[in-house]
Every structure is written in C-alpha cells, then in structure tokens.
Amino acid sequence: MSEGKKRRTHSAEFKAKIGLEAVRGVKTINEIAQEHNVHPQLVTQWKKEILENASALFDTKRGPKPVDESSPEDKLYSEIGRLKIEADWLKKKLGPVSRDERMDWIEPEHANLPLTRQCELAGVPRATVYRRLEAMVRQQQEDQEDNALRTLIDEEYTNRPFYGSRRMVVFLKGRGHRVNRKRVQRLMREMDLAGMAPGPATSKPHPQHKVYPYLLRGVAITRPNQVWSTDLTYIRLARGFAYLVAIIDWYSRRVLAWRISNSMDASFCVDCLEDALRHHGKPEVFNSDQGAQFTSDAFTGVLKREGVAISMDGRGRALDNIFVERLWRNVKYEDVYLKGYANMAELTVGLAQYFAFYNAERPHQALDYETPDHVYRAGAGGGALIVDKFGDVDRERETDGSTGQRRAAAGVEMDTA
C-alpha cells in the first residue's frame, strides 16, 4: 500500500478541540473541516460524540481543588524542568512514530516557524508536504464548486420542490454546469432535499425509529395551539451551509421557535421544541415529516411527556406540511437570498430580525392581511385545512366562508405581502 493511502490518526485532544468548535456553532462544518484538514463527516461525528457523552462529566462529585501556594519562581523552574524531561522523553520516542503521524504535525500557516524548518524537525520530506498542500488546494477548489452547485440547487428547489436529482441535472446543465447524477444526488442528500412527489425513498426515517400516522387530513384547524408543525431546511452561506429548524402554529402561521445548526443532529431540534413548549404552552397535535431528527426517541419523547398527539406526513404527500414549506420560501426569497449571509453569526442575527418582522409586521394574504402575532393573540382570522384530494377544495368553498381556510384548503396559499 502506498504512503498516500495510509489512514491518518488523530489524538483525543485534537478530536475534542474540533468537536467543541463544531458544538459552538460559530462556523459551518465545511469551514472547520477545511481549516483543520479533516473530512466534514469526521467533524460531524466528533460533535455527535461530544453531545452524547457530555452528561458523563457530571456523574461524579468533585470537591474543591487544593490551593497552590508555591511562588512564581518555583512554578517557573518546575515548568522548565518538566519541559526538559518531556523533550528528552519525546526524542527517545520519535523513532517508532510513523511518517503519516509526523506529517500531521506540519502547520503551513505557522507564524514563527518556516515550513522548511518544520519538515526538518519532524523528519519528513518537503516534496511530500508540498504534494499534500496541493491536494488540499484542489479539495478546496472542489468544495467551492460544490458550494456553487448547492446555491443553484437550493434556488431551483425553492421554486420547484418537486424536482428530483434527474431534473436537477438537466437544470444545472442549462446553467453551464455539466455534472453527473451521482454528484447531484450527493449534494441533495447533504442538503436534506428530495423531490416532493410519490415514489420510493422520498423520505428516509431511521430504520429503528417509529413512524406515526398522519392525523390531520380533512381536519379543520379552528384555533391557535391546536396544531403545530416543524421542518428542516438548508441555508447556504459564503463558506459551507447551515440547517434551520422552525416550529409554526398552523392557525395563525406564527413562528413559535427556531434554531440553526451546522449539522443535522436531533439535539437542536429538541432544543427548539422545548423552547416553544416553554413559552407557548403545548398543542393538541404536533406534525412533522418522517426525518430521523423528528422520529428520534429524544424528540418524540418530549411530545409524549407533554401528552401531545404525534402526527407525521404521509410519504409522497407534498401538501401535508404545506405551511412550513411556504415559510421556507418566504424566508429564503425575502431574507436569505437578498442578504447572502457569510457565516453562522450573521445568519443568527439576520434570522432573528426577519422572524420578528415576519410575526409582528408582515401582513399575510391568507390571514386577510393581518399579522401572525395579531391572529395568534386574538384567536380569530386564521384557520387551515389539509384536504384529502383536490376535489375536496370545491366542497370546502361551499361550506366554509373563511377566506383563510379556503386558501389553505386549496393548498396554494401565496402569503404575499
């Protein structure tokens, strides 16, 4: 086996550092991976391990730490002695260290230690280091191309959510990007996008998670907090991407809570749900799609604890969660696409401002041009109904005089300002 194919190894300290940086959520997974020359999947995996094992830190009791009464000079000499012992020990141990491990020591951007000197100290050839750096540059170029493709796919999917990978390939070729279907499938899978049309594998729940039936077909929504729903969407950034989850009240279209994350783990979805329950009470029914985040025990366990009925979209039913889909369209066209956020911090501030505007100031056509905040507080002027088939729309118009319910029943509410 050639040296280039040897598996790299990372220390526990390195993994913890990268995982904690991902947990902070200030940078995207791609930014962290490029900065530290690791695969994005490893960053996501280390973040997940930290979140899952964080509770173990508090399993044991800890007493007060002893006070160190030694003088600063004593501490300095002690530190010098410790460093000398460790340096001598390291010199003896350098022999068995593999070249791949020593290659990981190289820091091309080090301010005070030239690359040539680093290669001498680590005992690795400069030519090998330069080849690795060239490979990193090529990978960064490929990542930039992928980001450009994600941007085009995101815009087209927002316009035409029924497009699958085949139609996306045709669309991208029309924009001058000749890519194969496997690459488009990979990008759409990373973005958690799938064509909203009947067919196999349009929604992929975790095989060990329970999927609940859809409870809202033909049910009239007549009051606030009767039905809440949630969904995830992809948000493009200048470098990498983020995920946005939101919880919306069907009757008033009010956004009750939202969170962003640099990975699609269930923890930030659970945090969003807990925030909505803490500030707005609880709904009678909670609806979501069949994604692994929402079918997880952590998420459904919160709903069971609160005694909330769980409903999940049917496979291939594009209208079962139409109100959240409309919310994503508004968020992207009225905010994200216009502002082009560069990083997670800018996105957090921008979305906070937009959702405040969306709830309190933006009039909705489906609410007779009232705001979601007003309808939610007043308990009048809203409504919704997901029909079983399009033929039910005409019958709904005959029996219900509510403008909001008629538009919602048709499944084509525009929510225009």
Could you give the topology of this structure?
Blueprint: H1 12-24, H2 29-36, H3 40-53, H4 72-93, H5 99-103, H6 115-122, H7 126-159, H8 165-174, H9 181-190, E1 220-221, E2 227-236, E3 241-249, E4 255-261, H10 267-280, E5 285-288, H11 292-295, H12 297-305, E6 309-312, H13 322-339, H14 344-360, H15 372-378, E7 384-385, H16 392-399, H17 403-410
Parallel strand pairs: 2-5, 5-6
Antiparallel strand pairs: 1-7, 2-3, 3-4
Helix pairs in contact: 1-3, 2-3, 8-9, 16-17
InterPro entries: HTH-like_dom, Integrase_cat-core, RNaseH-like_sf, RNaseH_sf, Transpos_IS3, Transposase_8, Transposase_IS3/IS150/IS904, Trp_repressor/repl_initiator
Domain Integrase catalytic: 220-380
Pfam families: HTH_21 (PF13276), HTH_Tnp_1 (PF01527), rve (PF00665)
Shape-level CATH architecture of the domain at 220-410 = 2-Layer Sandwich
- Strand content range: 5-15%
Which CATH class of the domain at 220-410? Answer: Alpha Beta
Query: Helix/strand-derived class?
Result: alpha/beta
Q: What is Rg?
A: 26 Å
Show unreliable segments.
198-203, 390-417
Number of strands: 7
Q: Identify the CATH homologous superfamily of the domain at 220-410.
A: Ribonuclease H-like superfamily/Ribonuclease H
Distance between the termini: 62 Å
Q: What letter string, H or E per element, gives the SSE order?
A: HHHHHHHHHEEEEHEHHEHHHEHH
| Largest sheet, strands/sense/barrel | 5 strands, mixed
Q: Please give the order of strands in the largest beta sheet.
A: 4-3-2-5-6
Q: Assign a percent range to the helix content.
A: 40-55%
Nearest-integer average pLDDT:
79
CATH topology of the domain at 220-410: Nucleotidyltransferase, domain 5
